[in-house]
Amino acid sequence: MEANMSVRDFYRGRNILLTGGSGFMGKVLIEKLLYSIPDLGNIYVLMRPKRGKSFTQRLEDMQRLPVIYLFPITIAKLGPTVCPTVLEPMSGWVDSLNGPVGLMLGAGKGVIRTMLCDGSLNAQVIPVDTAINALIVMGMVEATKKEKSPTVPVYNLNNGHQNPMTWGRVLQIGKVYGRKYPLEWPLWYPNGDITTNRILHEIYRLLFHLLPAYFIDLLMLILGQKRFMVRIQDRISQGLDVLQYFTMRPWTFPCPNYDSLQTILNDEEKIIYNMDHRTSNREEYLRACIEGGRIYCLKEDPNKIGRNRAYHNFLFTLDCIVKFFFWMLIFSYLASWFEPVKVMFSYGGPVVKYLPILGKTVFEDDQI
Questions:
Q1: Dihedral of the CA atoms 201, 204, 209, 212 (nearest 10)?
Q2: Which of these three, 300, 332, 353, is where a domain ends?
Q3: DSSP 3-state assignment of 331?
Q4: Which of 51, 133, 158, 203 qualifies as a cystine partner to 273, CB 3.0-4.6 A?
Q5: Left (φ > 0), alpha (ψ -120 to 50) or beta: where does 193 sit?
Q6: For residue 3, is pLDDT > 60?
Q7: Is the residue at 312 inside a domain?
């Protein structure tokens, strides 16, 4: 690399050809290039019609967002999960429900209640704007090398090693924040959990995902409304299958090339193209991710938290009542079929006797 050349000096006046510019990372890349390199040449974006929209309509959609020089071939391998922005164009910006954000929002809506995940494993993630910063800098680095590598350079873009946090901690923070600032109109009280036991997970999935989905769709059919819940659960299952592949396995990504990028920048560009999150507040970032999902994906009004809390408290009460009667039915069934269980509950005396359903089953002989 030429001595004293900065990232902005390198890109000044250059034209950029970009594919995937309308995607999650592409939007952030375009925004970053436009604002951080004022003397940039032209950005050419390849775009095609998609989902009933012409390329001009899709371009107009991009222009409403808040938000190529061809260098030698370089491979940028992203970590398992690309997450919302940590800073630019604003903290928590996201336009997709894929990954951990979709998981936390789905759990906050009460539709995701179980997931295969080893909570002791570190979450290997990278904010999308950090990944974009790395792409811009590595382009300059590889293009200005005087001696080209005989092999294709590989950059593992991941900063989970800089300030590690376990999946268990991620979900715990999401739960606490979600209860303090609940989402609008959840389907049921949000109280899901993670497990590493596949059999237990499948039982929970049947009880808390599939059966409620079919029950709701049956009600929709009876009421003459469009059915939707089974379709949603199918999409959730597909998304979880992808995410669970990463949350159930330990991952190690050697990142020497990525870590070296920050060291070659001058002090000003270390701020502009920041890739160092060793001292960042991960909890604040997670809260920003949830708020970003609420605002940019779910289009919810963050000023209606008071109403959301009231409905959330109602669902909590309803959830407790339903669980109580559910277990009364289970215990009553066991007591009616297994005499030792019935005898065990009979020792509860007056307490058990006046419990609904169970008391009648245990003390049925006394009522004859």
A1: 170
A2: 300
A3: helix
A4: 133
A5: beta
A6: no
A7: no
